[in-house]
Design goal:
The longest helix is centred in the last third of the chain and has 39 residues. The chain has one domain. It is built from three helices and no strands. By secondary structure, the chain is mainly α.
Length: 88
């Protein structure tokens, strides 16, 4: 039941988070998120609910990591703006 979940947790140092640009390019080329089955694969083979849940959990974790990075960037930009305003 829990096969393939051992590699899911994204806080391991060997996990490579794709950049949003890479994800955008993949979606443009393939029409779906990386790691997700295509519509034709689902139509042909159906959906394995356990595997789908694992993939969706992975995508939620990836989104969270991207949000953390974006939040860091926003904070840095705000600090830079504040510094520039003070220098004026």
């Amino acid at each position: 039941m829990f096969d393939n979940w051992d590699n899911l947790w994204l806080n391991t140092s060997d996990y490579k988070l794709s950049s949003l640009e890479e994800v955008e390019k993949y979606i443009a080329e393939h029409g779906h998120l990386p790691g997700m089955p295509t519509a034709s694969q689902v139509a042909e083979a159906g959906i394995a609910l356990g595997e789908t849940e694992r993939i969706l959990t992975e995508k939620v974790e990836e989104l969270t990591l991207h949000l953390i990075e974006m939040n860091k960037e926003i904070k840095a930009l705000r600090e830079e703006i504040t510094t520039l305003k003070v220098e004026e």
